[in-house]
Design a protein that fits this description.
Strand content: 5-15%
Strand order of the largest sheet: 1-2-3-4-6-5
Distance between the termini: 61 Å
Number of domains: 4
Number of helices: 20
Radius of gyration: 28 Å
C-alpha cells in the first residue's frame, strides 16, 4: 500500500490519484483536510523546479491564474512554493477535456462551447492576460456542460518581462498563429486564432457541413493576416453568435476591451507611420544627390519597404544618410557616430522591443513635427501622446526619449536644412535656450566633449528627454488600464508643469505660453480622437 502524500499550505491536502501528466508537470486529485474547503476534492498541479528560472515561471503561472475569477476559467485556490516543486491548488473539475466531450456534440453545442471559451477570453484580455495555448485539451467540460479554460503556464501578461527567448514560438503546433512563428509578440489576436483552430478541430468529428456563420467564423479567426480576424474576443463572439456582447461575462472589467485599441490596429498604425517617415526621409536625403523624379522613386521604394519590413527600411534610410554625410565632406565624428547610433537603435533596441521593431523611425518624426511652422509645433508636442497611445510602456518611453534627443541634436547641428558652421546660435525647441551649434567638422571626441559642456551649461535639456518619456509612459499605462482620459489629464498636467521648469530664463517672450498651448491643443486632439474611438467601439 503506497503512503499518502500530503501538501502543506493554507490548507492541508492529501494527494489521492494522478489524473493528468504533461511535459513539465503532473496533476493530482486531492482531498482538502482543513479550512473552508475541508472535505472537498481539489486539483493539485505539481511542477518540479530545477533552477531559479523554472521557479520564476511556475510562480508566475500561479500568480496570473490566482488573479482570474470567471465562471469559464478554472479557479486557482492557492499557490504553494516548495523547495523542489511548486504546487498550484485549483478547483477540481469533474469532467473531461473538450476534444473528448465534443465527439458527441452537435453544431449548436460546438458553438456554445466556443462561445464560453471566448467569454473567458473577453475577461482575461481585459486583465491584460494572453493565454497563448488555447486548444481543446486545455478546456475542461464539467458535468453541467460548462466549459472551463485551464493551464495558464505560458500566459503572457502585459508589462511582464518575456521569459521565453526571442525567436522561439510558444504554444501547440496547429494552434499557433502564423505571426508568432515570424517572431511577433503575443496579442489577443493570437488567442483568437487558436480559438478558430480549436473550432476546426471540433468540426472534424462532425458528419455534416457547418452552417455559414460557423464556417465564416473559422475562416476569419484563422486568417493568416491578423487584420482580417475579429479584433477582440468580444467581436469574435458577435461574429460567432450574432450577439452584441457575451452574456454573463461583461462586467466592469470586461467593458475595458471596448476602450482599448486593437493590437491589429496598433500594428498597422506603427508600420504606416514608419513607412511615411521612411518616405519623407528618403526624399529629403535623395534630393540632395539626385533629381526630383529619382528622389521620389527612392522615397516611394523606401516607404513601401519600411511598411512591409520596418527595420530593413530604416537601415536603408541610415545608409542613405551615411552616404550623404560622407559626400558632403562631413567630419569623421558625424559620418561614423550617426550611422552607428542609428544602427544600434534599429537593430539592437528594435530586436529587443516589438513596438520599436515596428516603428524604428519613430524618433525621426520629431524633426518635421516639431520644427515645421504652425501646426507642426502642436504635433511635435503631441508626439509622446502618439507613442503612448500606440505602444506599450517600455517602447513608448524609449521612443519618446530618443525623439527628444533627436530634435535637440538636429537643432544643434542643422540650420535651414544645412549643417551649421559652429559660430551661429541654435534656439532649442520648447526650451528657448540659445547654444552654440556643433560644427560638422568635429570628430567623435570633440562631439562628446561639446555634449558634456552643453549638459553642464544647461542641464534642463535632460528634463525634456525625461518629460517626453514620462508623458508617453503615462498615456501607455492608462491605455493598458482602459483609462485613457484619466491618463490624458495626468500627462497633460504633468507635461505643463515640466515645461514650466524647462524653459530657459533667457528664452524669448512667449516661449512658455507657446509650449502650454502646443501641449494643450495636442491633448485636445488626442482626447477627441480617443472619445470617438471609444464611442465607435462601445
Amino acid at each position: 500500500m503506497t503512503e499518502t502524500r500530503y501538501i502543506e499550505g493554507q490548507g492541508r491536502y492529501a494527494l489521492a490519484e494522478m489524473v493528468g501528466r504533461g511535459g513539465f508537470a503532473t496533476v493530482w486529485r486531492a482531498r482538502s483536510l482543513r479550512g473552508s474547503l475541508r472535505g472537498r476534492d481539489v486539483a493539485v498541479k505539481v511542477i518540479p523546479v530545477y533552477s531559479a528560472g523554472e521557479r520564476s515561471r511556475a510562480l508566475r503561472e500561479g500568480q496570473i491564474a490566482e488573479g482570474l475569477r470567471h465562471k469559464n476559467i478554472v479557479e486557482t485556490l492557492e499557490v504553494i512554493p516548495g523547495d523542489h516543486e511548486i504546487y498550484l491548488v485549483t478547483e477540481y473539475v469533474k469532467g473531461m477535456p473538450l476534444d473528448e466531450a465534443a465527439k458527441a456534440y452537435d453544431m449548436g453545442e460546438i458553438v456554445d462551447a466556443l462561445t464560453q471559451i471566448l467569454e473567458a477570453l473577453v475577461y482575461a484580455h481585459a486583465q491584460g492576460i494572453i493565454h497563448r495555448d488555447i486548444k481543446p485539451q486545455n478546456a475542461l467540460v464539467d458535468s453541467r456542460g460548462r466549459v472551463k479554460l485551464t493551464d495558464f503556464g505560458v500566459a503572457f501578461r502585459a508589462g511582464d518581462t518575456r521569459l521565453t527567448r526571442v525567436g522561439f514560438a510558444v504554444g501547440t503546433p496547429g494552434y499557433i498563429a502564423p505571426e508568432i512563428l515570424d517572431g511577433a509578440d503575443p496579442t489577443a489576436l493570437t488567442d483568437i486564432y487558436a480559438v478558430g483552430a480549436t473550432a476546426r478541430t471540433l468540426l472534424a468529428h462532425q458528419p455534416y457541413e457547418p452552417p455559414p456563420r460557423l464556417r465564416e467564423f473559422v475562416d476569419r479567426t484563422t486568417s493568416p493576416n491578423p487584420a482580417h480576424r475579429p479584433q477582440s474576443a468580444w467581436a469574435a463572439v458577435k461574429l460567432l453568435t450574432g450577439r452584441k456582447a457575451p452574456s454573463g461575462s461583461v462586467s466592469a472589467a470586461g467593458l475595458k476591451t471596448a476602450y482599448r485599441l486593437s493590437e491589429g490596429f496598433k500594428d498597422g498604425a506603427l508600420r504606416l507611420l514608419n513607412g511615411l517617415a521612411a518616405g519623407w526621409l528618403g526624399y529629403v536625403l535623395a534630393s540632395q544627390m539626385l533629381d526630383g523624379a529619382q528622389a521620389a522613386g527612392i522615397a516611394a521604394g523606401l516607404g513601401v519597404l519600411a511598411y512591409l519590413l520596418p527595420r530593413l527600411g530604416a537601415l536603408g534610410v541610415i545608409v542613405a544618410l551615411a552616404v550623404l554625410l560622407i559626400r558632403n565632406g562631413t567630419g569623421l565624428g558625424f559620418s561614423a557616430l550617426v550611422p552607428v547610433l542609428g544602427g544600434v537603435w534599429v537593430m539592437g533596441v528594435g530586436s529587443a522591443n516589438g513596438d520599436v521593431r515596428r516603428l524604428p523611425l519613430g524618433p525621426a518624426l520629431a524633426v518635421p513635427l516639431t520644427l515645421v511652422a504652425g501646426l507642426g509645433a502642436v504635433l511635435g508636442a503631441g508626439l509622446p501622446l502618439l507613442f503612448g497611445a500606440l505602444m506599450r510602456p517600455l517602447g513608448a518611453c524609449l521612443s519618446a526619449a530618443v525623439s527628444a534627443l533627436t530634435v535637440l541634436c538636429y537643432e544643434l547641428t542643422v540650420s535651414d536644412g544645412v549643417f551649421s558652421d559652429g559660430n551661429s546660435y541654435a534656439e532649442l525647441p520648447f526650451t528657448g535656450a540659445h547654444l552654440y551649434a556643433v560644427p560638422r567638422s568635429f570628430g567623435i571626441e570633440q562631439i562628446l566633449h561639446r555634449a558634456q559642456l552643453i549638459v553642464h551649461d544647461y542641464p534642463q535639456l535632460l528634463l525634456l528627454v525625461l518629460l517626453w518619456a514620462a508623458i508617453a509612459g503615462v498615456i501607455s499605462l492608462s491605455e493598458w488600464a482602459a483609462r485613457p482620459f484619466t491618463g490624458l489629464v495626468v500627462a497633460a498636467g504633468g507635461g505643463m508643469l515640466g515645461y514650466a521648469l524647462l524653459v530657459s530664463p533667457k528664452a524669448p517672450p512667449g516661449t512658455l505660453s507657446s509650449d502650454m498651448i502646443s501641449l494643450g491643443l495636442a491633448a485636445i486632439i488626442y482626447g477627441v480622437l480617443r472619445y470617438l474611438v471609444s464611442r465607435a467601439r462601445g
